[in-house]
Amino acid sequence: MSNEATIRAAGGVLWRAATEGDEEAGVEVAVIHRPRYDDWSLPKGKLAADEAAPDGAVREVLEETGYHVRLGRSLGETRYMKLMDGVERPKVVRWWAMEAGSGAFVPTREVDGIRWLTLGEAHALLTRETDRELLDRFVRGPSPSRMVLLVRHARAAARDAWKGPDEDRPLDECGWAQADAIVRLLAHFDPTGIVSADVRRCRQTVGPLADSLDVPIEDQPLLSGVRYAADPDATVAFLRTMGGPHQATVACSQGEVIPDLVARVAAADEVELPTISSAKGSTWALAFRDDRLVEAEYFPPPRVEECGTA
Length: 310
Known about the structure:
Blueprint: E1 7-20, E2 23-34, E3 39-41, E4 44-46, H1 53-65, E5 67-84, E6 87-103, E7 113-117, H2 119-125, H3 129-140, E8 146-152, H4 173-187, E9 193-196, H5 200-213, E10 217-219, H6 225-230, H7 232-241, E11 248-253, H8 258-269, E12 283-289, E13 292-299
Parallel strand pairs: 1-6, 8-11, 9-10, 9-11
Antiparallel strand pairs: 1-2, 1-4, 2-3, 2-7, 5-6, 8-12, 12-13
Helix pairs in contact: 2-3, 4-5
């Protein structure tokens, strides 16, 4: 069946720390009741036309539960057939772990109830096997995870047309548009730190994010191509210790660094990767438990008119 016939959707396993008295007691997850189907499910919904899956996932979880979230590690996809208007169509749902922030549930026509449950209670209550399988994926990973958002700098002025030192080569019009557009994706992870290779085009790429969040940019030479070529192990060690639990850190680097760096860490920690890529303006979302990589997700560059169709 054609891609046009596929229903695109996204959602999340919404979780928060459970407490007993003054002590943390694991996590609890949100399960919602939909009166139309009389079922208990995880929050999700259809994407709007051309809506990016992370944007749609965050929007749908807010609409169905009332909670703002911090995007976490990818939980992959679920696929099944959906009957609509008498015709079966394939449905693909993208999922993320999402830590609950501020908010409160308000009943609507689509969702009239929410329960915060232990993992075992949620598993027993969920109506569909696909949701139970998804919850199992969530259980197998860390909560919270330490996220590192590894960004390749956006498109820069042509190397052969630039007369100054290469480290001073700036973004071009397309690159500035990419830098503005990438703020939306990165902000979903609620980053608390921003580091950058000591290269102008890298600093410029994360500049709009720093301005938006009022977070300073810290120069880190280990993320530059020159330093990485001289001592890749030092950059690997830095990546493994960046940030902390309940935190996401944005790190901007270069094309000669990112594919090899991600491949090294994934191989050492036995994490399967999609095809290694690092287009200008793209992001790798890396989830760590302590200093060990547990999940890696690739986000292509945002689409912007200034970059044309190439």
